[in-house]
Design brief:
The chain is an alpha/beta fold. Helix content is about 45%, strand content about 15%. The protein has 2 domains: about 140 residues, Aspartate Aminotransferase, domain 1, CATH 3.90.1150; about 240 residues, Type I PLP-dependent aspartate aminotransferase-like (Major domain) (Aspartate Aminotransferase, domain 2). The structure holds pyridoxal-5'-phosphate. The site of pyridoxal-5'-phosphate (PLP) has 14 residues, from helix 4.
């Protein structure tokens, strides 16, 4: 790849603008009802509590908070988070944690330390677009295993693992993005057995696990594996704010030490000020108090979206009703392409994401991802009824 003077690296050819980020530009226009992004509800941001945490940061840690800090992350916050994670039955020591700029950076750092050009990664089909983008940067090759209402198909996963050496398996086992599904415990154990049998590590991405509004808690792969052979990622993006760009990685100490090297070379450290602010926020117990309010709000919004889908969509559309998280996944009859629905929907000022973008090797043209967290109740009704009309017309 060439410019007149500059010559780009070959990896650039694998970097594509996220279609979702492109849709976000359109959907921020006034009057547009967007089910496209994965944005938390604007009403969910705890402004007062965060203001208090920021004030405490300035008053109690002002100088430290404005200074560089260690790459691993400030010890106080890591300790506090490890205690909080214990309550979710996730047991990790601060030395097994790295604070990063959100899970998206975690994916990039993992690509950096694990992937060489041409390495295979096993992904769920469909899979989180940001992970596909990130691993693409490192010129990975993808193999996939389909998911159903219980997550990754183990027989298909094993077929892939048997056929070639895979560098790692990447999964979102709880409230999947985009499909909303959750892997039951038995399937988690099955996946861990496969990973052990073929000696492949698992990356477990869990931004939504605490946003459960139905059904019962399922242990993480990381805790089932007692931290061995699994790297766990989570983030404050959906529980506090995506704008603060803070997340964390849990892994065996040796892997954390390699990630620290990669992080040093990338951004030196996560934002010190934000780390202190989140530390104070957690110390006040605000995080624990805030999560039930998000769950309640999202339970309500998910319930409304499902209700309107049942009311306005034709019965041929298969709907994956989530027990938590932020997305409803729909499968249209095979003959109807979501791109056709999208074309007409945007003319009616409604946006969503065509599911095909989440299929690393193509396919899924008749699927749609709908986000329910960032729309007002009234817009849920109007938007879903407009979409329903478009689908009925096209059918
Ligand atoms: C599965 C998954 N992983 C990672 C991310 C990125 O999160 P963050 O904002 O922490 O970078 C998202 C965001 O939507 C996600 O859905």
């Amino acid at each position: 790849m060439k410019n007149d003077i500059f010559e780009y690296a070959p990896r650039l050819s694998r970097m594509k603008a996220s279609i979702i980020r492109e849709i976000l530009k359109f959907s921020s226009r006034p009057g547009v009802i967007s089910f496209a992004g994965g944005l938390p509800s604007p009403d969910s941001f705890p402004l007062k509590e965060f203001e208090q945490a920021v004030k405490d940061t300035i008053r109690q840690d002002g100088i430290r908070a404005l200074q560089y800090t260690v790459t691993e992350g400030i010890p106080g916050l890591k300790k506090c988070l490890c205690q909080w994670l214990k309550k979710q039955k996730i047991f990790a020591e601060p030395k097994e944690m790295l604070l990063v700029h959100g899970s998206q950076q975690a994916l990039d750092l993992l690509g950096k330390i694990f992937l060489a050009k041409g390495d295979y990664v096993l992904l769920e089909n469909p899979s989180y677009l940001g992970a596909i983008q990130s691993f693409n940067t490192y010129q990975a090759k993808f193999v996939t295993a389909d998911i159903d209402r219980g997550g990754i198909d183990l027989a298909k996963a094993e077929k892939q693992l048997k056929a070639r050496k895979v560098k790692f398996i990447y999964v979102v086992p709880t409230f999947h993005n985009p499909a909303g599904v959750t892997m039951p415990v038995e399937r988690r154990k099955g996946l861990l057995r496969l990973a052990q049998k073929y000696r492949v590590p698992i990356i477990e991405d869990d931004p939504y696990g605490l946003i459960r509004f139905k059904g019962s808690w399922v242990p993480s792969l990381y805790s089932l594996a007692k931290g061995k052979g699994v790297v766990y990622l989570s983030t404050f993006s959906k529980l506090l704010s995506p704008g603060i760009r803070l997340g964390y990685i849990l892994a065996e100490e040796e892997i954390i030490s390699k990630l620290v090297l990669a992080k040093q070379a990338t951004t030196l450290q996560a934002n010190t000020f934000i780390q202190y602010a989140v530390y104070h926020y957690c110390q006040h117990g605000y995080l624990e108090k805030h999560i039930p309010t998000i769950v309640k709000d999202y339970a309500h919004k998910a319930g409304l979206m499902i209700k309107y889908i049942r009311e306005f969509f034709p019965p041929e559309v298969q709907v994956f009703e989530p027990e938590g998280g932020m997305f409803v996944w729909c499968i249209l009859p095979k003959k109807l392409k979501a791109s056709k629905v999208f074309e007409r929907a945007i003319k009616k000022n409604v946006a969503f994401v065509e599911g095909s973008v989440f299929f690393p090797k193509g396919g899924g043209e008749n699927t749609m991802r709908l986000n329910f967290t960032n729309s007002k109740d009234s817009d849920l009704k109007i938007g879903i009824s407009r979409l329903g009309n478009v689908i009925k017309d096209l059918l």
